[in-house]
Recover the amino acids of this structure.
């Protein structure tokens, strides 16, 4: 079923002008198709013999689904050939635009491929028999090399979204890597949330109809955008409340500078404020298991591990790599790991494993000079911490106004899992820790 | 390190092993007075005498059987069968006796025998004298089969084969006897069952053995210059046991593979290699593995036809380009 109008999603066969067994020439009208707008002629993409009609008059098919088979005549009209397996076969060969006789396997020394039949419409993608990539029942997946499939799993690319550049449209590794480089990546992990939230960026979205306006550009959703949106929408189910705290960041910055100086020349990454925040949160999460929790609908899950996700901006969205067991790792190790994860995130090379298993999330926009923001929860986690920039500010110390350095923290909490007083104790202790930073490590 | 021919490396190794171990002796047709059809045994009769360099009648089954008996009783015979084509006359001795003795006698005896024999086409010797039928032996448990490509491996593997307590088919190639390479002077062995990455590359793996390895190396050098394709060459060296791990490790690295073999395509060494790759590196493959092998005909005598029937460097380059092209992103 070809796309015969810009907005059609399926078409209905109004009338077949050819019968099985009849010859058809390339470009000859073989059927009339009702789209959402009009009745259109369907012209044959290839010449040959109309072997099978897969969608009868009055029947409807989605764009790309095979509706008939044109072949050399050898497959004409046997009883029982038009079942689902025939449809699969037709789909599988639909993209073989290689020279006649070359099947989907290519014309290697072992001989030509198995089928010469072509579907009427060049379906956008071919089914790989037996290949279930978790795209849900009935989703059609393009033919792809094993390496391409493995790479797609690793990068979280949905093969269905790809066009293969290999023989017969085979998706090869380079296609997947290119898609990842262009579109960004955000796999949906089975073992926990993968997308965190950047609050304050989501204004009201125009709701429908915008695409029709000439001065509006429609931006198709990349996979990462789609998943980010889904996850963020899900967080709306949680009744949120927010706690904010302004901390005196002077000693934290001094401590960080001291840590950088002390480790200069050592292998590994320079310690950042984010690293110290992760470490401080991890230490407190161990002491406050109720914050290191998740809402599970009919019960609350208390995580036994402390895995802190760090929101990282990538070109087309947001990913949240997770530092596992952050409470148990020395700062230097935690820092190296966080940097490696961030680098992988920017290169689009995070694995599913890298993004799975988070129990708490940290989002730091301090490096962008943001003073204060609140973050959208990263469901099903109970809490997320938003961190603003450390900057010079007038503070009151011993009754006098003096120049100091402050930093604003905002904790977003899922009220189903956690109550105000519990969360407040966590945030208060976090402030104490950050204002006396040596304690982070003790 | 001295550069010597494959022929010289074999000769020197036989002599060294005979000097080192009195139980090593040579047996075969025309290896003594005539000094061998391919002169591998030149001078050895004069040096070691007829007790240790035994000329035989044209009787492959007889002298292979005699060697098996000698081996079972503690000697280390090195049999020369003039070409692998004639080994068919002795195949019952090899398959049904040499390969079986250890198991069927419950480990009470072993057969520390080596059968040296050259195969290969390209010499206009006709269909029945130009075959690569090493796979007949590689198929059979109880045997070891090696097929070195270089003079250095010829020395290392022949030494290892003579030291080995099991029967070893040592497959040479007529097209290799005059090839040269550096060979260390000191004695050494090359482990049987261990392939070698003889050229490192990143884009594609060519798996080959014997003469085809030299062809693969030539093609690899050429494609690096002309196409910028980085070809890794894995020389099997041993066909049984087959070093599956080295093959798969290379393919996991390069993501593509071609097998180049001088034997026939169907049921050939390449078929085993491809099966190994799909078992051990399936998720790493970005293109189908192709096999370049001899045309499935008795090898013609006519020079142009013989050349056309044998796998060529041009064909190998084409296979490599095809595998790389079809898995390279083109926008």
């Amino acid at each position: 079923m070809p796309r015969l109008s810009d907005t059609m999603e399926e078409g209905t066969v109004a009338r077949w002008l050819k019968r099985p067994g009849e010859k058809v020439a390339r470009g000859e009208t073989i059927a009339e198709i009702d789209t959402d707008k009009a009745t259109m002629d369907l012209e044959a993409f290839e010449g040959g013999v109309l072997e099978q009609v897969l969608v009868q008059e009055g029947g409807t098919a989605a764009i790309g689904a095979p509706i008939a088979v044109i072949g050399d005549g050898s497959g004409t009209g046997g009883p029982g050939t038009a079942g689902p397996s025939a449809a699969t076969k037709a789909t599988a060969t639909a993209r073989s635009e290689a020279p006649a006789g070359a099947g989907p396997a290519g014309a290697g020394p072992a001989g030509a491929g198995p089928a010469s039949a072509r579907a009427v419409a060049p379906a956008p993608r071919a089914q790989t028999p037996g290949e279930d990539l978790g795209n849900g029942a009935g989703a059609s997946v393009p033919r792809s090399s094993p390496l391409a499939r493995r790479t797609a799993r690793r990068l979280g690319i949905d093969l269905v979204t790809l066009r293969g550049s290999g023989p017969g449209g085979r998706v090869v590794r380079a296609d997947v890597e290119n898609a990842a480089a262009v579109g960004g990546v955000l796999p949906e992990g089975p073992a926990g949330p993968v997308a965190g939230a950047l609050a304050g960026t989501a204004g009201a979205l125009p709701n429908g109809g915008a695409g029709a306006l000439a001065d509006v550009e429609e931006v198709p959703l990349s996979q990462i955008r789609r998943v980010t949106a889904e996850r963020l929408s899900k967080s709306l189910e949680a009744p949120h409340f927010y706690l904010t705290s302004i901390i005196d960041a002077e000693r934290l910055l001094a401590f960080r500078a001291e840590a950088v100086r002390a480790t200069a020349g050592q292998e590994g990454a320079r310690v950042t404020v984010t690293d110290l925040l992760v470490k401080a949160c991890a230490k407190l999460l161990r002491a406050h298991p109720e914050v290191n929790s998740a809402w599970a609908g009919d019960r609350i899950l208390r995580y036994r591990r402390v895995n802190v996700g760090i929101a990282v901006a990538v070109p087309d969205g947001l990913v949240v790599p997770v530092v596992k067991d952050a409470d148990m790792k020395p700062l230097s190790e935690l820092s190296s790991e966080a940097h490696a994860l961030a680098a992988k995130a920017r290169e689009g090379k995070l694995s599913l494993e890298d993004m799975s298993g988070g129990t708490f999330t940290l989002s730091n926009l301090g490096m962008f000079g943001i003073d204060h923001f609140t973050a959208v929860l990263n469901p099903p986690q109970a809490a997320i911490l938003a961190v603003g920039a450390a900057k010079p500010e007038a503070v009151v110390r011993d009754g006098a106004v003096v120049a100091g350095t402050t930093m604003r923290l905002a904790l977003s909490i899922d009220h189903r899992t956690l109550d105000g007083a519990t969360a407040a104790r966590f945030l208060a202790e976090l402030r104490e820790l950050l204002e006396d930073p040596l304690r982070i490590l003790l | 390190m001295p550069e010597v021919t494959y022929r010289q490396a074999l000769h020197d190794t036989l002599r060294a092993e005979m000097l080192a171990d009195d139980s090593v002796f040579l047996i075969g047709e025309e290896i003594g007075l005539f000094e061998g059809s391919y002169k591998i045994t030149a001078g050895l009769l004069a040096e070691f005498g007829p007790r240790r360099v035994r000329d035989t009648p044209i009787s492959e089954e007889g002298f292979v059987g005699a060697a098996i008996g000698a081996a079972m009783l503690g000697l280390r015979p090195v049999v020369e069968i003039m070409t692998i084509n004639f080994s068919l006359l002795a195949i019952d001795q090899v398959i049904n006796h040499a390969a079986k003795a250890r198991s069927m006698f419950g480990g009470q005896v072993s057969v520390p025998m080596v059968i040296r024999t050259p195969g290969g086409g390209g010499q206009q010797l006709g269909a029945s004298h130009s075959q690569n039928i090493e796979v007949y032996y590689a198929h059979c448990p109880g045997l070891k089969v090696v097929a070195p490509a270089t003079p250095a491996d010829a020395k290392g593997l022949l030494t290892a084969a003579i030291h080995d307590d099991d029967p070893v088919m040592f497959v040479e190639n007529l097209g290799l006897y005059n090839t040269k390479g550096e060979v260390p002077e000191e004695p050494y062995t090359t482990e049987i069952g261990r392939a070698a990455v003889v050229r490192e590359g990143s884009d594609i793996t060519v798996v080959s053995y014997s003469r085809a390895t030299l062809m693969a190396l030539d093609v690899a050098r050429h494609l690096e210059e002309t196409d910028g394709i980085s070809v890794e060459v894995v020389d099997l060296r041993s066909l049984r046991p087959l070093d599956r791990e080295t093959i798969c490790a290379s393919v996991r690295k390069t993501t593509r593979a071609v097998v180049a073999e001088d034997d026939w395509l169907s049921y050939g060494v390449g078929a085993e290699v491809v099966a190994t790759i799909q078992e051990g590196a399936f998720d790493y493959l970005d293109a189908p593995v192709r096999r370049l092998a001899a045309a499935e005909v008795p090898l013609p005598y006519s020079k142009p036809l013989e050349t056309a029937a044998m796998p060529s460097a041009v064909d190998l380059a084409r296979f490599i380009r095809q595998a790389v092209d079809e898995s390279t992103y083109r926008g």
